[in-house]
Amino acid sequence: MGKKPDCCHTDFDRLFDEPMVRRDLADYRQNGPQGAVKHLIAAIRAEGVQDAALLDIGGGIGVIGHELIGSGAARLTAVELSENYLAAARDEATDRGYADRADFRFGDFVELAPDLDAADVVTLDHVLCCYRDWRSLVSASTAKARRLYGVVYPVDRPWWRAASVLANAVLWIMRSDFRFHIHPERAVDRLIRSAGFERRYRRGGFLWQTVLYRRADGAPFAGGRSIRTP
Fold this sequence. Notes:
Blueprint (H helix, E strand, L loop, with lengths): L8 H7 L2 H14 L3 H13 L5 E5 L5 H8 L4 E6 L2 H13 L6 E5 L2 H4 L6 E7 L8 H9 L2 E10 L3 H16 L11 H10 L2 E8 L3 E8 L15
Parallel strand pairs: 1-2, 1-4, 2-3, 4-5
Antiparallel strand pairs: 5-7, 6-7
């Protein structure tokens, strides 16, 4: 994969081990989408996804892809740094009968981005908090979004920052390279808007916020390779 990714993938699979992945998948199968991702999916559906191409970055077991393909989206590209999660997402896509319309990529999205097609809908659910260089991640991912751009990431509040310091201290003691990040939400919003997007939906919570953007009318789109017709 070239240079070491921003977050070491070996630590991803140590933190998100197979028992955790199995629990997440079982919970999803029993209860469907929950929490912030449920609101993101609803907001995207309200904008329409019929025949859309999806790019889901760091989507874990693939909840967003599974749900939106089920709502009429045409195809999915999923990029994930956890091999355990990627395998679970691929298996679930097979069980749901759309694996032939899905492309699962293991690796750091920022590194893989030049070789990925653009998509109508780009999503990052609980991903910005796992990536130190958020500007590169946001810039590379907004450049792939032709129409909608959805994110779930932490609210920028003092108590969350204090908790992240404690969590990262524990991770350091555990000799883990993984770190949790609280990024400045005004700067994140400003960078997304500067890429040609306007905010269509926001739902703030105590810890997490769900935000959906739409490319503004007349805003140029120059990122990514040409999208392939399914």
